[in-house]
Amino acid sequence: MLLFSAIVPPAQLAESLELRLGALRPQAPDARWTPPDRWHITLGFYGEAEETETRVDWLRKALAGQPAPVLRLEGAGTFSRVLYLGVYSESLIALATAAGAGAERPYLPHLAVARTTGDVPAELAQGLSRYVSEPWTAIEVVLMRSDPTPTGRRYSVVERFPLEVRPAGQASG
Q: What residues are labeled active site?
């Protein structure tokens, strides 16, 4: 079992993005497209874990009082046979850092949408390069567990951590 913290995009965004990706799928018939119910923006990756309660307690303290970021997906990129959409927000880096991101390598906020066995075809990233989602407010972080199955990994929510939604222009106090 692997543990990681993440933000899950809202259903209306997933529906809109799914329509956009549908037009790209014929260009990469061998790609493994991530289903919308598995889409997430990883904040902190914690690796193998036997006991989750320690991580739950740690995250509860680390995320207490963290503001709910306004996010948007914009543009596309590739790395290690992964096609992803960029994630932009003024406060996402601070939230991810609080959740443990950046300790091992620089944090790259992204939403992975497909994996390939070889290089990601350039036309896929080009096909998403002008994509811009509607902004949304992430009202919670989830601690996820990832378990191997014969057909891939299965994700499940271990715990939810609400974020502080503040009126526009209000700073933390």
A: 40, 110
